[in-house]
Structure formats: structure tokens, C-alpha cells
Automatic annotation (TrEMBL):
One of its GO terms (molecular function) is oxidoreductase activity, acting on paired donors, with incorporation or reduction of molecular oxygen. Heme binds at C403. PANTHER family: P450, PUTATIVE (EUROFUNG)-RELATED (PTHR46300:SF1), P450, PUTATIVE (EUROFUNG)-RELATED-RELATED (PTHR46300). The keyword Mitochondrion does not apply. The chain crosses the membrane at residues 6-23. This is Cytochrome P450. Belongs to the cytochrome P450 family. Its cofactor is heme. Keywords: Heme, Iron, Membrane, Metal-binding, Monooxygenase, Oxidoreductase, Transmembrane, Transmembrane helix. The keyword ATP-binding does not apply. Gene3D superfamilies: Cytochrome P450.
Length: 490
């Protein structure tokens, strides 16, 4: 009975590795040392079920009201610290970034579905730094300023599409959405119980799913890289491909590195605009009228907002800050990891602990952002003199793992948001059968690593005939426009 023998051997190996795993995980972490407070867990699995719930970041936010800004959880033997205020996250992840810049082991999304090639999930090691060196010249502040003509072009295309046949902002990519479901913390038991990785493939269906995801992503990223290298004119992919760092990478590793940057750009822009529209439809909308009044005063009705208007459009910057705070696109945060023990205040943090900045909770820290944190209020970012307050920008991460492309993302959001609000009234969709307005909930979302609204209907109605004329006069963007600008940038 070879099949039965294999099965029994697999079960025995799994049982042995599980016992060893738990022995090493649950033994005491230093006599007399006080862990942070946290919820009582179940035997063996601890608090793992809470991680498996839908919208775990919302659950952790509610728990933080009882247990405080630094909360301890036992995730099936894995120590985890949940941070719920900006002060705690800054103190550990930024000030002590030498200790807290690593990533935990992510079996499904990191090792299986990406073969260890997703930059976001890489450990903080020499390989990660190699990829950072390759990408840095294209993501820093100087590079961000060079891309503004291209972002201006893209914003014109956005208005042109909305005027015609794009009444709803849609998901950017199916492959990206599927991967983000896989990368969600707690999505697969193998991440909590790595010993399950030793099961044979028939007893480990996630292995087939991961292989399928890897093939999809590899084909997508390799195909896009190939197209970019064949395109006329310069582009970022060509320059990265020609870099000294790329010579130390395989073609698929380079393709993943370039592709992950593209995914990040899609996420930040498309998802943030989705949430901006949700805010306009579901929250009190006085801020929309206020923004449009300011835009009319500064810009007028005969042209689109331009970069030169930025200094007088502080309120638009405040809107962008507020949407990034109100709905961070990774609300649960990306987990950090410390291999060394540490002490924070009165609390002991064991070695090999996951440290998770719960951005949803951090963005609702009233000591930092003021009251009514669940309400979309751009004014919280503006001081008595009409200037932007120096409040934390939590949506782009902390310390050495902060998003290197944040300046590019913010520039792109500024020109798109300014022009979108200048051009259109944003109204809820209407049910074609009943004629009734379709209500939109600001908590009706698709769960995953990146959280986006469920599909919704919105109508973009030109604010006046002149707005329509201005959009049309700028015309549809074509490939020659892109090539001209890319030649100027590079």
C-alpha cells in the first residue's frame, strides 16, 4: 500500500514538525518580562482566528480601545504586536528602524506565489537593497518632478474618458486583485502553520493555487517588460534593464521588480480616486462645493488647473491628505519583523515578533488627527493661517520600508483630483429599473491586502458646457504625445 504509507509518513512528519514548531514558539519569552496587553487567546491557536476574520484591521482597531496602542497577540505560536497610534509606530518602525525593517516569513504570497521576488515582502537584506538601488533614481524627489508632464497628460486622458464612456472607476487588473487576496494577512493557514508546507500536494491545495498565481504574474510581468523593451523611445523599464544592478538579476526577477512598481502606481492612484469618489457620495459633501469654489476663484472656468496653481490650492492638497488618511489603501499595514528582542516603555517585545502598524487605527488617533476621525474633513489639515499642518503622512509606511515613490504618487493625485473636481459634479448612480438613487456605503469594501470599494455607480456630470468644451479642446491623448514627453524626461 504505497499510497497509505506515503500518507502516514506525511502525517507523522507534519505532527513532528508541528510539535517542534509550537515548542519553540510558545516557550516563555524571558522570565519576569511583561508583554504588552492583549486579548485572551484559545489553546494552541491563540488569537489566530481573529486574524482570519473579515476586515481584521477593523477588529484590531476596536480592540485597541480596550488594550491600548501597543497590543500583544499570539497567532498560533507566532508573537505579534499591533500598533494603533502614530507615536508608537514612529518610535518603533522609524526611530528604531535598524531593528524593525525586516519582514516576517510569508509562505503563500511571498514564497509560493512570487518565488520570493515581490519587493514589498522581501526581507531587509542585500537582495532587497540591490532592488532599492536600481529603483531609487526613478522614484526620488528629483525624478518625481520630471514626471509631472506625463501626469498632466494622464489627467487629461482621465477627464476625456469620464466625459464619454467611463462613468465608473473600475478595478485596475484582475491578476493584481487576485494576488492581493492571497497576500492578505491570515488568508491561508500555511502562513500561520508553516509546518503544513510539508504536506504532499494532494493534501495542500494552496500549492496549486500559488503555482497558478505565480504563472499568471510571471507571464504578465515578463510580457509587459518585453513590450516595454520593444517600444519606441525611452522608458523606465529600459533604463532599469540597462542598469548595473539588473545584471545581477534573472530576467524574471527584473520583470517582477518593474512590475511591482507598476502595480504600486496603479493601486495608489486608482484606489485613492475610488475612495475619493466614495467620500463625495457618502460623507457630508460640503468639502466638494468648497473645493470647487476655490478652484473657480483660482483657475476660472476657461482652462484646466495647472501645476502652477498648486501654491493657491492648499485645500486640494488637504483633500488628498484626508483621503489617504481616511481610507489608507493598505489599512491593516504591511507587517514588519524584528529578529532581536526589544523593550518599549514598560513592555518587552520578544525576538522574532511580527510588528503590524494598523494604519486604519493610526489614522484615527485623535491625539494626532483630532476628533471625528471617521468623517472626511479636509479642514483638519489646515491651520489658522490657511497653511497645511505638518501632520503625519501614514499611508506610505514607516522607516526604511517607506514607499520610495510617495512623491510621484502625490503629484499624480494632485493634478487628477484638482481637474476632476474642477470639471465634474460627482453624483450617485440611478437604478435604471426603479429610477431611485443608489446609496453608497463607505464601509462596503473588498477585503485583501489592498482594500478597495466594491463596484459602485457614480455619474460624472460636467459642471457647465464650458467644462465640456475645455476637456474636448485638450483632446484625446495618443501615443505620440507620450513619446514626445518620454523623450524629454529621459
Amino acid at each position: 500500500m504505497p499510497g497509505q504509507t506515503t500518507l502516514l509518513a506525511s502525517i507523522a512528519i507534519l505532527a513532528l514538525t508541528t510539535i517542534v514548531y509550537f515548542y519553540n514558539r510558545v516557550k516563555p519569552h524571558g522570565e519576569g518580562k511583561q508583554l504588552p496587553p492583549g486579548p485572551q487567546g484559545l489553546p494552541i491557536i491563540g488569537n489566530a482566528l481573529q486574524m482570519l476574520r473579515r476586515l481584521p484591521w477593523l477588529e484590531f482597531y476596536r480592540m485597541s480601545r480596550e488594550y491600548g496602542p501597543v497590543m500583544y497577540m499570539n497567532l498560533a505560536g507566532q508573537s505579534a504586536i499591533i500598533l494603533s497610534t502614530h507615536q508608537a509606530a514612529h518610535d518603533l518602525l522609524s526611530v528604531r528602524s535598524a531593528l524593525y525593517s525586516d519582514r516576517p516569513r510569508v509562505v503563500m504570497a511571498g514564497e509560493f506565489a512570487c518565488k520570493g521576488m515581490h519587493t514589498l515582502l522581501r526581507p531587509y537584506d542585500a537582495r532587497y537593497k540591490l532592488h532599492q538601488r536600481m529603483a531609487s533614481p526613478f522614484l526620488n524627489t528629483s525624478a518625481a518632478n520630471r514626471y509631472t508632464p506625463l501626469q498632466e497628460l494622464e489627467s487629461r486622458q482621465l477627464l476625456f474618458d469620464l466625459l464619454r464612456d467611463e462613468p465608473e472607476l473600475r478595478e485596475a487588473k484582475k491578476v493584481l486583485a487576485e494576488y492581493e487576496q492571497t497576500a492578505k494577512p491570515g488568508a491561508y493557514l500555511v502562513d500561520a502553520f508553516p509546518a503544513l508546507n510539508y504536506l504532499p500536494r494532494p493534501l495542500a491545495p494552496w500549492k496549486n493555487k500559488a503555482e497558478q498565481l505565480y504563472e499568471q504574474q510571471a507571464n504578465l510581468h515578463l510580457g509587459n517588460l518585453s513590450k516595454a523593451l520593444e517600444q519606441e523611445g525611452p522608458n523606465v523599464a529600459k533604463l532599469m534593464h540597462a542598469s548595473r544592478e539588473a545584471k545581477e538579476m534573472t530576467e524574471v526577477e527584473l520583470a517582477f521588480s518593474v512590475g511591482v512598481l507598476a502595480d504600486a502606481a496603479i493601486d495608489t492612484s486608482a484606489m485613492t480616486l475610488n475612495w475619493l469618489i466614495i467620500a463625495a457620495l457618502s460623507n457630508r459633501a460640503e468639502w466638494v462645493q468648497k473645493a470647487q469654489s476655490i478652484l473657480d476663484k483660482v483657475v476660472g472656468r476657461d482652462r484646466l488647473p495647472e501645476w502652477e496653481d498648486c501654491a493657491e490650492l492648499t485645500y486640494v492638497d488637504a483633500i488628498i491628505n484626508e483621503v489617504l488618511r481616511w481610507r489608507p489603501i493598505i489599512p491593516g499595514g504591511v507587517p514588519h519583523f524584528t529578529k532581536e528582542p526589544d523593550v518599549y516603555g514598560a513592555y518587552y517585545i520578544p525576538a522574532n515578533t511580527i510588528v503590524l502598524p494598523n494604519l486604519f487605527a493610526i489614522a484615527r488617533d485623535e491625539t494626532t488627527f483630532g476628533p471625528e476621525a471617521d468623517t472626511f474633513i479636509p479642514e483638519r489639515w489646515i491651520d489658522a493661517n490657511g497653511k497645511l499642518k505638518d501632520l503625519p503622512d501614514v499611508g506610505f509606511g514607516f522607516g526604511r520600508r517607506i514607499c520610495a515613490g510617495k512623491h510621484i504618487a502625490r503629484n499624480g493625485l494632485f493634478i487628477k483630483v484638482a481637474r476632476l473636481l474642477w470639471a465634474f459634479h460627482i453624483e450617485p448612480g440611478v437604478d435604471r429599473t426603479t429610477g431611485e438613487t443608489i446609496e453608497v456605503s463607505d464601509m462596503d469594501c473588498v477585503d485583501g491586502l489592498v482594500v478597495l470599494p466594491k463596484p459602485f455607480k457614480a455619474v460624472f456630470r460636467p459642471r457647465c458646457d464650458n467644462a465640456r468644451d475645455v476637456i474636448n479642446s485638450n483632446g484625446k491623448v495618443d501615443i505620440d504625445d507620450h513619446l514626445h514627453i518620454l523623450n524629454e524626461i529621459f
